[in-house]
Amino acid sequence: MKVLCRNMELDREQTMISSSPFVISFLLLVSVPVLFVLAPRVLPPKTLPSIPNRDEMDDLALFRRATLASAGGGGGLRRRAAAPPKIAFMFLTNSDLSFAPLWERFFRGHERLFNVYVHADPSARLLLPPTPSFLGRFIPAKATQRASPTLISAARRLLAAALLDDPTNAFFALLSQHCVPLHSFRFTYHAVLANSDVPLATNGDGVLRRRHRSFIEILSGEPGLWDRYVARGDDVMLPEVTFDQFRVGSQFFILARRHAVMVVRDRRLWKKFKMPCLKSKEDSCYPEEHYFPTLLQMQDPEGCTHYTLTRVNWTDSIGGHPHTYRPPEISGDLIKELRRSNSTYSYLFARKFSPDCLDPLLELVDITIFRD
User: Fold this and answer.
1) What is the pLDDT of residues 147-191, one digit of tens each?
2) If DSSP codes are grouped into helix, strand and coil, which group holds residue 93?
3) How far, in Å, CA of 94 to CA of 187, rounded?
4) Which of 305, 286, 156, 307 is nearest to 227 (CA)?
5) What pTM was computed for the model?
6) What's the CA gap between 197 and 308, in Å, rounded?
7) 116 beta partners
8) pLDDT recorded at residue 294
9) CA 287 – CA 125 distance, rounded (Å)
């Protein structure tokens, strides 16, 4: 009897062993679709790199100082003969400032009317020595990269540095190392500071101030805007920014002082825009083209022109980069064409130019570019 029972147990074990591969295969087959259903709910989605916490803390301290230093200024322009309003030219770069000699010609003789600030990516190898206007004008910088909010942070850093550095900085022009001027400094200065039909205002101290508008592109209803809105996730921007409030515009702008203060003071929208995009949405991730126009549209739409003064050619863009002008294309006719605009003002700057365009551009300084 014991022998019989033992034989039966052995037969049962052999049957289980022989069937186990089938059972395992069946379980694996069933588990695959289950994983596809449950994995997105259990595993966090893959995102692009975010801003390091240390960088964020450093920026918050900087922005707080800039906000406090600007408190009570109201962003208006006080008419003081001894201190004329200045334009802060802010260069955001990750390579050499190849067009510095051209900018030197642009700035020459107008030292009382401008300041220069440069944010250079720490990983960039800058081989060219700074020219006089750029010497000592580099601000503490952090790493930047495309498809991330680091470009917003860099622009805000420049704004904060310029606000802290000189209270007579009245306008803040964001430029890249690939930008060049299309007019003389005198023409540019008067165009930016010209009265742009914004009503006069006071700040409770009885002093009447001119309220100048910011030159920033603010667009809605553009193709692909929804994909950009959900680049961080379907409902991530809510409730602070609804889709009908979401805007797009050129990365390059000229902000009036009150708007520069508004940008460095902001915390509410920044907590949304600083969130990294999903890896799957990388092709729709351009935070620097959305944060500034969305913020200003929500807080002061009447104080903005809704157009930029920096000309860019997107007709044959590649990989999100605009057309790059090469030396054979440089001519007086090109400069005149780049100036043309559908807005009240002609374009004041243009991009994107390759570094070897410097010499042909310098040849046009006296005969075209600075002849307004």
Assistant:
1) 899 999 999 999 999 999 999 999 999 999 999 999 999 999 999
2) strand
3) 29
4) 286
5) 0.85
6) 17
7) 89
8) 98
9) 25
